[in-house]
Amino acid sequence: MAARRLSSLLSHSLHLPSASASLGRSHGVARHINRFSTAAVVEELITPPVQVNHTKLLINGQFVDSASGKTFPTLDPRTGEVIANVAEGDLEDVNRAVAAARKAFDEGPWPKMSAYERSRIMLKFADLVEKHNDEIAALETWDNGKPYLQAAQAEVPSFVRLFRYYAGWADKIHGLTVPADGPHHVQTLHEPIGVAGQIIPWNFPLLMMAWKVGPALACGNTIVLKTAEQTPLTALYVANLFHEAGLPPGVLNIVSGFGPTAGAALASHMDVDKLAFTGSTETGQTVLQLAAKSNLKPVTLELGGKSPFIICEDADVDHAVELAHFALFFNQGQCCCAGSRTYVHERVYDEFVEKAKARAMRRVVGDPFKKGVEQGPQIDSEQFKKILRYIREGRDSSATLECGGDRIGSKGYFIQPTVFSNVKEDMSIAQDEIFGPVQCVFKFKDIGEVIKRANNTRYGLAAGVFTKNIDTANTLTRGLRAGTVWINCYDIFDAGIPFGGYKMSGTGREKGIYSLNNYLQVKAVVTPLKNPAWI
């Protein structure tokens, strides 16, 4: 199935295909339904239709136990119960993984293989992932809590599309011939950077893996990937498919573990040539310090955001409500570029607030494997408590709680879709990245004012603009200090579109041609010319 845009699949009412009702055995017939307005949470949960077969570390082409023998539990966010116990990597395991990656780069076939052959392996891998789409999607939903439709029809196909995209780039990476002022032949070589350390987050485990692993492999590098401790399962599943596709041992190594141990060991490792990290701004600062204090390895950072979504006075309010709802609540609000500051022109503000409240109250929250569910649980207890704390702070401020504001049920990490109006810039809910289903609505008067207010943040990852006026759109596009500006759309993540932030939202770009630069070294080669016919 071809990859589809996330927005086209998810920005309107979500309905799982009828086959999804038989994804697994239900624990009995649903009899009791908790209601948040008209949104239903079905208490009986579907048993995920997938087995967990890979829980060990991947080092040098083999699934192995951690050196310490330790494991940690990965939990089902629907219940807080253990799905599986996964090998817990630490410093010694990172050392083993880096050594394997170094040997594969210095002595193995991958960098010496023709770019066309590397491309063929990546394409074969993409075909295998596509073949196992439903199992991978079920595992992602089980470990993460996101709706199955989102995983099966948007994220896994996007993962496949990204690897096909980068497979296409593998044999198109080349240097230049540079004119010199004297009798010299000058050329540049674009060489693989070496061993890449990559640390990915829990909110989009598969997609973040593709954003990093795809370009690194296309450029001929080897990799040590540290997965998030909350969501280690899908990376291990697809890594097994990579070796089935013919990836040589040691090219891709995966260490499951925790940030202060495995993550810190990778960031500070003296034999890692490049580091890429996606996560919070605070952790990104620590990663950057560790990289600088070790071997000054270059670092790509994709960090937090507090993105403005600006609805102008000429907006179709019904359409704007739906798009703003999607921009914030998508993926349970656990999205770094979520449109978490909704600025609405004063002429349409009251109408927007009433309709945004009604839309939030219609949002269906429940078991993400169930048909019709739009929102699953938050990732874990820590994030769940953090979101509820911000909601309490919003209640205690002068903001108006329009709807939501509480947990749903007594089991798992489900939170009511929440809308605050009359939000002011000095409130914590306006300044901080909540990373949850909490929409904050602000009122503005004119374009100059809203540009200044939208930019008054330490973040600069993304922004959204909703207007019918091309001049207004152009003014906002150039005025907003953000790495991506979506006009009358949101969360369009095609493989070729670069993504990254201004200010404290990060450094560098992922996806598209720009991401290749993260994994290449440029070498200038200068040779004298004897009696050249031309210079």
Mean pLDDT: 93
State the helical fraction. 25-40%
- Distance between the first and last residues' Cα: 52 Å
Largest sheet: 7 strands, mixed
**Continuous helix count:** 15
Q: What Rg, in angstroms, do the CA atoms define?
A: 24 Å
Question: What fraction of the residues are assigned to beta strands by DSSP?
Answer: 15-25%
Q: What's the total count of β strands?
A: 22
Structural class: alpha/beta
Enumerate the spans where pLDDT stays under 50 for 5 or more consecutive residues: 1-5, 10-40
So what's the overall shape?
Answer: globular
Strand order of the largest sheet: 16-17-18-15-14-19-20
What is this entry, summarized?
The chain has 535 residues and is of the alpha/beta class.
Helix and strand topology:
Blueprint: H1 6-10, E1 33-36, E2 39-42, E3 57-59, E4 62-64, E5 71-76, E6 81-87, H2 91-106, H3 115-131, H4 133-144, H5 148-169, E7 177-178, E8 184-192, E9 195-199, H6 205-218, E10 222-227, H7 233-244, E11 252-256, H8 259-267, E12 274-278, H9 281-293, E13 299-302, E14 308-311, H10 317-329, E15 341-345, H11 349-362, H12 381-396, E16 400-403, E17 418-421, H13 428-431, E18 438-444, H14 447-455, E19 462-466, H15 470-479, E20 484-487, E21 506-507, E22 520-528
Parallel strand pairs: 9-10, 9-12, 10-11, 12-13, 14-15, 14-19, 15-18, 17-18, 19-20
Antiparallel strand pairs: 1-2, 3-4, 5-6, 7-8, 8-22, 13-21, 16-17
Helix pairs in contact: 2-8, 3-5, 3-7, 4-5, 4-7, 5-6, 10-11
Structure description:
The protein has 535 residues and is α/β, with parallel strands linked by helices. 35% of the residues lie in helices and 20% in strands. The protein has helices at 6-10, 91-106, 115-131, 133-144, 148-169, 205-218, 233-244, 259-267, 281-293, 317-329, 349-362, 381-396, 428-431, 447-455, 470-479; strands at 33-36, 39-42, 57-59, 62-64, 71-76, 81-87, 177-178, 184-192, 195-199, 222-227, 252-256, 274-278, 299-302, 308-311, 341-345, 400-403, 418-421, 438-444, 462-466, 484-487, 506-507, 520-528. The strands form six sheets. The chain has a seven-stranded mixed sheet, with helices on both faces. It has a six-stranded mixed sheet with strand order 11-10-9-12-13-21, sandwiched between helices. Strand 14, helix 10 and strand 15 (341-345) form a beta-alpha-beta unit. Helix 2 (91-106) runs parallel beside helix 8. It is globular and about 75 Å long. The model is unreliable at 1-5 and 10-40 (pLDDT under 50). Keywords: Oxidoreductase. The active site is at 302.
